[in-house]
Design brief:
The chain is α+β, with helices and mostly antiparallel strands. It contains four helices and nine strands. Strands 1, 2, 3, 4, 5, 6, 7, 8 and 9 form a nine-stranded mixed sheet that branches. A hairpin with a 2-residue loop joins β7 and β8. The protein is globular. The relative contact order is 0.26.
Length: 160
């Protein structure tokens, strides 16, 4: 599949504390749940920064005609040359997607991080009446996603 690059950003090279500090000082809001994800041991960061090509797609763009589960969605995306995002990509994208249209919500396709309520979650970037948010969303392996739900993946280096 020939995917269009949505954004190319530098990701990595910052530790968790630096990302939390930058997000707390940013021009958007961060939910306590998203902050809780960043405080988990599964929230890892890369020691070096690198250019990353991101793709923003709808679930239906992967050829689904019925609502797939999280696991089905991820498997098909990876079979079509996309990669899951790293945990640090959520805060990085939020900080660099300040012109997000009002009413849009997009999810980071990533390995889920279990937060204090015991549910596996992914980052959600949204813009509502109260502004821009870095939030979380429960993403159980069997959760079903609407065909118009938007997700961000990394473009595999093999696909670029």
């Amino acid at each position: 599949m020939n995917w269009s690059i949505w954004k190319t950003l530098q990701s990595g090279g910052k530790d968790v504390n630096q990302l939390i500090r930058e997000n707390n000082q940013a021009n958007y809001k961060i939910s306590s749940w998203a902050l809780g994800m960043m405080e988990q041991k599964d929230f890892t960061t890369s020691p070096n920064s690198q250019d990353v090509n991101f793709v923003k797609i709808k679930v239906r763009d992967l050829g689904f005609t019925e609502m797939p589960t999280t696991d089905e969605h991820y498997a098909r995306a990876q079979a079509q040359g996309l990669e899951l995002c790293l945990p640090e990509d959520g805060p990085t994208l939020r900080a660099n997607y300040l012109n997000q249209p009002k009413g849009e919500a997009i999810w980071m396709a990533m390995k889920q991080i279990t937060v204090s309520d015991g549910y596996p979650s992914v980052f959600e970037l949204d813009r509502g009446d109260d502004g821009l948010w870095l939030d979380d969303s429960i993403a159980l392996p069997g959760r079903r996603w609407f065909l118009d739900d938007g997700f961000v993946f990394r473009l595999s280096k093999k696909s670029s």
